[in-house]
Amino acid sequence: MGVEGIGARVVRKEDKRFITGKGRYVDDIKLQGMTHAHFIRSPHAHAKVKKIDSSAALKMPGVVAVLTGQQIVDDKVGNLICGWAITSKDGSPMKMGAWPAMAPETVRFVGQAVAVVIADSKNLARDAAEAVVVDYEELPAVADVHAAIKAGAPQLHPEAPGNQVYDWVIGDEGATDAAFAKAANVVKLDVTNNRLAPNAMEPRAAIADYDAADEHFTLYTTSQNPHVARLVLSAFYNIAPEHKLRVIAPDVGGGFGSKIFIYPEEMVALWASKKVGRPVKWTGDRTEAFLTDAHGRDHVTHAEMAFDASNKITGLKVKTYANFGAYMSLFSSSVPTYLYATLLSGQYNIPTIHAEVIGVYTNTTPVDAYRGAGRPEASYLIERLMETAARQLKVDPAELRRTNFITQFPHQTPVIMAYDTGDFNASLDAAMKAIDYAGFAARKAKAKGDGKLRGIGVSCYIEACGIAPSKAVGSLGAGVGLWESAEVRVNPVGTIEILTGSHSHGQGHETTFCQLVADRLGVPISQVSIVHGDTDKVQFGMGTYGSRSAAVGLTAILKAMEKMESKAKKIAAHALEASEADIVIENGEFKVTGTDKAIAFPMVALAAYTAHNLPEGMEPGLKESAFYDPTNFTFPAGAYICELEVDPGTGKTSFVNFVAADDFGRLINPMIVEGQVHGGLAQGIGQALLEHAIYDANGQPVTASFMDYSMPRADDLPSFNLSHTTTLCPGNPLGIKGCGEAGAIGASAAVINAITDAIGKNNLEMPATPDRVWRTIHAA
Amino acid sequence: MSTVKLTVNGKAVAVDVEDRTLLVHLLRDHLNLTGTHVGCDTSQCGACVVHIDGKAVKSCTMLAGQADGASVTTIEGIAKGDELHPMQAAFRDNHGLQCGYCTPGMIMSAIDIVHRHGGQLDEATVRHELEGNICRCTGYHNIVKAVLDAAGRMKVSQAAE
């Protein structure tokens, strides 16, 4: 692998600027003549906007403009779109209410913008916003899914009667009913998957700069996918054609899905910069993040699993209500359907599955993809069901899983996915060994002597990553293809620039992507630069989410590298008067195999650019590009086991051990992979124990700051015990499966299974706060 | 408006600011020291931690005027030229950062933690002491490792001085 090649724990190249305070995030950027935007947001969950009086604000010093929702509609800026069309079981398309960037008539969640103040400074804009008088007529609001679908509930959108977006089904209902009719045992479970706020540490921000002379816009934005942002802003929001809009996502301080979407604030900043003739900057504060960043999860589910007499699963029935909030965000429709129900087979042989998903509007912040996006909800449901079944059937939970593991690959599930490879017994073995599963009973007995309730919980997750084969997702309703692009530019002195459509916002691409180049060419990673996040530099790309950057983005780089190497070999062969077939690349040199004849890579590059002595007919230069479209999803999988203690007097949970055994296929940089798992586990544990975005019955958010929303802190988490088992992904040449979301997908079920094991009661909802655990212990 | 005179990273500065200006905004907007970040507005996340007269302080919790006469050190001021502070080096070597946004505040808090505990640190103490710094990327695992590693390095470098 070499010291910097594939598999090496290379320290990150990007770290120097971050640890010295030289990172360059959007809010760090200042443009000449820049103005500042402050949004005026609805304090009501549902209301008519009767009148906006900005006369007093416009007289205040430093105020440049007050712009309203009616003006943005009048200027024909497009409504926000949802990019994945879902069809209901009756054949009708999903029902979408219009979502203007600022509300001209009706607000449908607390925090929805109705107007924006543009001023010379942030403070002046904020002061002036206080002087804008908005006259609202309050309307009845609804925040809960069950309340929203009741007859007589407040209605959000005339386009969606009964607040229903869609009623979608997957699987064979008849076969599933037949399996249940013959079942020896049926296990039933109701679960709520709690609503979460993503809370990347960097709040969203945007700077828009309109150049009137060239009729050209530049947007600096906190985006995971700047090219997708440009495409949507151009094609759907009528901001500017793509060649007149440059989108730059510089250093971005975390995303977790929330920075995939194109939000009203970017649209308004662009539109306003043209209107006022100056650059416009908006930086959100934390409360704005809670109110306007797309939330995650929020499912209410009833599920039943059928077993035969030998404890083999014979069928699964699922009915889920998904809360979409007040509007359909960019990819929201796909999350509880094709990213959730298609993973309901888990790691198990399940002959037949039927799932129904009902999407519901409520007067809450829109919900969309958050780390894992649908897969954590599926994994949590299945792994809670398996644990519940083991308790009901009185078998060891690990054994019940083994009885039902898929062991033959490829495996076609009844819900679309074709698992390509895996070894679920191997990861469970590794996790059980790491935690000394066999010794648990003795440890539990000892803890009991100390007055503590000790529990152990298993979670065997699988996910679909490497999103995604374009043809497959197109046939399921996606509005985009999900390939990735790459370009390899070799400079005349032999240094290399890799341009990628992936975007790093913490993932370490500037290091791992260089490792592939080092591995293939034997050049040091200091000779390689990664260029990303700027639509003027990189031709196109789909960005980073769904654990796709290595499996899809890096494979695109590999394809471009292969093309570049092929040309370089021809040049080397010509220079060395050898046959191209005899050229091998070793330690930065192109060698004639079996001889001592060699030419260093920089000399090959120089030859390509001097073009004094190239093979007959060859174009000068050394630059190649590739587009890579995956052939299948990838299927990372693994086993997590959590051991913890509950204090029966307080309900407080304390971790004893948390082990994770993951199969991600080939690892490029194990240090970075482990970091991804740590962060994912923290988010999964956060969901299980701490985090909950809460609304009262009238749609008022109760958790809109870090004072109220419980973020995982260092003291809430254990150190983690990680290991890897490996089956290489056959779907891409590097054998990579992806590692970005696994922790968040698998962790929450392990924690809740452990707590319910400890307290001896199965029904416990997330987050399992001490109060909730104590009440469950002491409930009659 | 008032003139605030303070020393920032060893350099004396005088800045005219609105009286309501927070120290973090003086640093970011007036002195272009953008390594100090704002993550929450409620003094919870610690992305804005700097040192004031050697002690870790959340610079979003303090008016610029309150720092008049003080010596402020930010993330930009802890390396000696190209030589990283041991805490910076430990964060890099232990992969104690991902997106980098919380990192400056984490490093500034962590240096203060090591100073206050005189290098007598264990994992539980580090986790407890990091209560005022939120990271969403790392799950804290490698941050804790980095702080413990740096505590050892700082002891060595102190002994060498």
Précis, in short:
The complex is a heterodimer of chains A (780) and B (161). Chain A is of the alpha+beta class and 780 residues long. Helix content of chain A is 28%, strand content 23%.
Explain this structure.
- The complex is a heterodimer of chains A (about 775) and B (about 160).
- In chain A, about 30% of the residues lie in helices and about 25% in strands.
- Chain A is α+β, with helices and mostly antiparallel strands and about 775 residues long.
- Chain A has three domains: about 15-20 and about 485-630, Aldehyde Oxidoreductase, domain 4 (2-Layer Sandwich); about 30-140 and about 200-255 and about 260-290, Aldehyde oxidase/xanthine dehydrogenase, a/b hammerhead (Aldehyde Oxidoreductase, domain 3, Alpha-Beta Complex), CATH 3.90.1170.50; about 375-465 and about 635-780, Aldehyde Oxidoreductase, domain 4, CATH 3.30.365.
- A seven-stranded mixed beta sheet of chain A has the order 3-5-1-12-9-10-11. In chain A, strands 7-15-14-13-8 form a five-stranded mixed beta sheet, with helices on both faces.
- In chain A, a hairpin with a 5-residue loop joins strand 16 and strand 17.
- In chain A, helix 18 (about 670-690) crosses helix 19 (about 740-760).
- The longest helix of chain A has 28 residues, at about 550-575.
- Chain A starts with 14 loop residues before the first helix and ends with a helix.
- The relative contact order of chain A is 0.12.
- The model of chain A has no long low-confidence stretch (mean pLDDT about 95).
- Chain B is of the alpha+beta class.
- Chain B contains five helices and five strands, in the order E-E-H-E-E-E-H-H-H-H.
- In chain B, helix 2 runs antiparallel to helix 5 (about 140-160) and helix 3 (about 105-115) packs across helix 5.
- The interface between A and B is large, with 56 and 53 residues.
